[in-house]
Amino acid sequence: MKIFVAQLDPIVGDIKGNVKKIIEEIEKAKSQKADVIVFSEMVVTGYPPEDLVHYEDFIDKAEKAVNEILPYTKDLMVIVGTIRRNLQGVGNPIYNTAAVLCDQNLLGYKDKTLLPTYDVFDERRYFCEGADQKVFSYKGSKIGILICEDIWGHGGQVRYTKYKRDPVEELKKLQPDIVVNLSASPYYFQKKDTRIQTCLKAYETLKTPLILCNQVGANDQLVFDGYSFVLNDKGQLVYMAKGFEEDSFLFDTEIKYQEKTFAVDPEKDLFEALVIGVKDYFIKQGLKSAHIALSGGIDSALVLCIAVKALGKENVYPIFMPSRFTSLESIEDAHFIASNLNVSLKEIPIDEMFQNYLNLLSPYFYGKGPDVTEENLQARIRGVILMAFSNKFGSVVLSTGNKSEMAMGYATLYGDMCGGLDVLIDVSKTRVYSLARWLNRDKEIIPQRIIEKAPSAELKEGQTDYESLPSYEIVDTVLEKYVEEYYSVEDIVKAYGYPEKLVEELVKKIHRAEYKRRQGPPGIRVTKKAFSIGRYFPIVQKWV
Amino acid sequence: MKIFVAQLDPIVGDIKGNVKKIIEEIEKAKSQKADVIVFSEMVVTGYPPEDLVHYEDFIDKAEKAVNEILPYTKDLMVIVGTIRRNLQGVGNPIYNTAAVLCDQNLLGYKDKTLLPTYDVFDERRYFCEGADQKVFSYKGSKIGILICEDIWGHGGQVRYTKYKRDPVEELKKLQPDIVVNLSASPYYFQKKDTRIQTCLKAYETLKTPLILCNQVGANDQLVFDGYSFVLNDKGQLVYMAKGFEEDSFLFDTEIKYQEKTFAVDPEKDLFEALVIGVKDYFIKQGLKSAHIALSGGIDSALVLCIAVKALGKENVYPIFMPSRFTSLESIEDAHFIASNLNVSLKEIPIDEMFQNYLNLLSPYFYGKGPDVTEENLQARIRGVILMAFSNKFGSVVLSTGNKSEMAMGYATLYGDMCGGLDVLIDVSKTRVYSLARWLNRDKEIIPQRIIEKAPSAELKEGQTDYESLPSYEIVDTVLEKYVEEYYSVEDIVKAYGYPEKLVEELVKKIHRAEYKRRQGPPGIRVTKKAFSIGRYFPIVQKWV
What we know:
Chain A is of the alpha/beta class and 544 residues long. Chain A has 17 helices and 19 strands.
């Protein structure tokens, strides 16, 4: 049996465009004599459509899409992820489902059983739990269908809940010959390995070839890495599609494939995730150009590299806005990185404007010494200038705050936090450095000096981040353990031997900055727990 | 049987403080010879604690709270809302539950059955569904316990799902003598009436006295209106606590109460909801003072009234920041409202600063005519000034954008959208006017001229809102039907006869402004569907 796996990058809500893509893939599959074509989860609507599914006309249009695809299914079975109404009268109004079409007939639907409702997933808000497992017979083979999470409960990889049902065990009873999994499985650091391990667990139970078709591309804050793959009847990984781009392939159960090994390069994956995160944010909205505040520091240098890769250097406009506190090194480094990337750099000094504000405000601030007010003023003047360029030229500002800064509140709201998308929102400072080193692996793209110098916001004389923070190694360890792994302060102290006061202070800073993050730009999620999506903490609370 | 109903305003995560309050109420109940005391849903942790419940030490502390309360339960039954661990090994890790304590013994728990997971509720993210209904016998009466949503499925008031179980019908089989409902039922416009109607439906099935104890106060964006009440054995409303403040009362099943009627004044409720929304945001964070940009228009005038009521006039600092486009009327009106409310008004002209930016940017904008850039610049200069005051004096900026503006994107990101809390984020322009008229019912607090003049952002010569928008009657109708009721464009055209192009354009504006709202301040939710909480739409989408 020849199975064509279509790894697509759908646009949320673009049912017409997505159906067009689906039909094109079907034609491609036919030309390769495929028997079956598998698409990813909810490829018809794009994933996740969120509250769009509360509109009846949205559901109507998604349901009708099946009819538009039907005429193209002659001599072929099509398994396509979509939504359909729940007509039972109880439960949520729709299913997350796979429509099975064959020879211009709709054979039926296989609904998703396990509905993840944790972290970035909200499926029990929208969907009704599928009743039974099913197999669909075609050309002498029984094809079992699972949808994304259906396979994850079995793998023991879900930390937030323990499902009552196990669709893998349920499906096993129906003795399928081949199992396909339709996924919209978002990327986080090293997720690919976890995904393969999870499918291997399912293989151990099912003992059939297992084909996972994943969505690729970014929607808002979520990146889908693709990397669709096949485990053969021996549980060997014999095929894997490309990551971070559309890529379809044919798998033939009759062919003996060699077991494949794949280069493990998590930094490369992370970089590509950030690139497609930026690219799809722009392309899918019909946007083209970006403005970036280049400071001479490492974060904006890295964002510039990502933006140039995503949008092309002709569409990226860095602006350097020095003040009285900007160091000579920063001036040189900003120009160095811009010329390295062959983008022209505008230099707009803000010192005069800063002085204007100081003069305007001085009568009201009489008797009060300088404090964070004056630091924030500089960041906000830069924000105003950037946004003026964005408005005048129809570009998007890319902001550059990293996860460690967002955690600590070490950023100015309406200042350096201005932007349509925060590229590094989920990349810790430690990982910013490792990514910069990875980028420089063959050639010095980011000047080595930027990587080596002590990080500074340069908002007052002689400032460095370490004035108000311990080393980023400590900050990032606390960040990872407290935010991603839900360690308590006590657990962190026990595990790492940091002073309790220090850990407590860092955790307090994380909660105190909640009000800032609430108003920060959306940003690309690349870890198991991002600030920007799937994390909900009250601003007003007295726990911490 | 004497039942004491304790309507409290807990602080999220302040388990220690909440337990202290609970014990004080128990003492009060004892002094009134109560047999039973009922608290609201999750009063121990405050509602909603959101992801705080992912921390094991948070659950530990909440579980231990029961032990702290136990010693105070001699000769009294205490029914108190809290959380507890699910020890079954399947499902979500905790229950939303009522602990039943009596005579220094823990009699047991009654877990919440229906877990709302729509709009502002995310309970299936966190909680495990309760297994059975239960009654607890005390002094010859069987007391049935329902928790908030448990009563709402029966009432047919849930639009997003249809529950499989009906706890009211289940409980009926256990033949309770009295039923209590522990609620954290958030306010929206006219919700009180809906809540009473819902309980009347439950009464029709249960035919027992029904006592609803609701949370009061605001947590972040949610306001809980209180208004705890009693339906007697004839289904008559015989007692209702105050709205928007802590208020406890004793209900005696042996006394024949008169049926009570209550004045219906939805504008008063709305005003009080906004006041407590502001007040609790400040008090619960230990904040005191607010800065407000007063423009001479109706929105900021109304916010000033609300802030003065919530924080006291000595804590509210309006700033008037005229530009070349500010009208003489606005200058007069801003001063008029400030003097009406007896607050001193700072006047800081921004025109020179505006000119400074124009000069700074002109070399880069050469050949480009004026557009929205220059309008936004003015709003952003005001934002920078306001935030400097906020930083320097440790105050919070209250922003004043109303729901209609937020819908249409008729606001400047990082400009007038600056602020810790947007007071009117869920109040449409039409309702802003009706609230202003209500405020003026006895005395002209908001100058009549502000109410009567055409609304204008005054960011360019001769500007009014109607340049780019139809009347607010149309905007607000489309807003309500499209956002709150999920009408399609077609349905709105059919129902109201507006031109299809116009409705389409308004709906497009709503979606196009998604990126702005994502970065707007949190704001007080007062309708069935707010932009600020419980509404999730993709920024990147091609449905609209």
